[in-house]
User: Fold this.
Amino acid sequence: MRPEVRGGHLYFGDVGLTAPSSSFEQMPSYWLMKSEPDECSISDVEKAPGRKVPWIGVRNYQARNFMRDQMRVGDGVLFYHSSCPEPGVAGIAEVASAAYDDASQFDSKSPYFDGKSDPAKPRWQHVDVRHLATTPLLSLKEMRTRPELASMQLLKPGSRLSITPVTPEEWRAVMAALVELGAQPSVAKLVAA
Assistant:
């Protein structure tokens, strides 16, 4: 059960607890989102109108559920280039919308078409993602050498999800690594951890 904040109180079902002075609603979550750069790169997002794109085509229920049930506007995103010669974190983004229906599931010309999805009850949803910074590439190979990142879902054997949660500690460690690689120190403050 996901707790929710209502009127300054934290609720677990019908049981309410007083929230601390810094509201839980304001605490961002962090995500790693994979994209194939020949389909949508961090540069493509930077050049898009409003520097934002819909995260279309997710056809995995767990990844969809992360977007639908857990992502909130303002959450931090490690934009990860995958299925390319050198995969890795290529930039920082943020969740820019609540989840909404992915229209590509109904487009028979789309590679993401799902003939079993009912327009009255769509299966697939997505969020919009907004560009915050393009960074030096923090490669998968480099990430594997950093003990502070050893617990990341991305680095676990068999991990293939296109969207995975990132802890605040992992987020800060990635920000520090990006600064070491030449990113502006201000990148660490784009989405505070």
Observations:
- The CA atoms of residues 148 and 173 lie 7 Å apart.
